[in-house]
Structure prediction request, 131 residues.
Amino acid sequence: MSKLISMADVVAPRASDLFLASHGSEMQLSDVPVRPDRKDSLYAPLETDGGERGHIWKGKAKESSVYTWAALNKRWLGGVLLAGLAVPIAAALVGRARAARLGRGADREPTTGVDAAGSPDGVEELPVWPT
Prediction:
């Protein structure tokens, strides 16, 4: 959730601020009651730091994620994305050059869609056989 909020802060900072102002403190609270013998760090530091996710979190931490991989491999990922964009752009440019060479480019005179014989764009009408 924190990665999503930090990305939203880049795209829409005001919306991110409003969301955190209304929900930020609720997201830090827990329904687990506090142990009566729990030590706090109000006047002195604790002996332990609570671990990777705290003492109440029972899940397993992932070693990596897609976000972490993308953040660590920016150059490689950027090259792949650039190559992925270059292929359709090159295909469009080649298609445009081929169309211009064959006389079907943008500089061609517009047609009405009907040739001199009355057929649409030079298509000959097939004879109709009596039934």
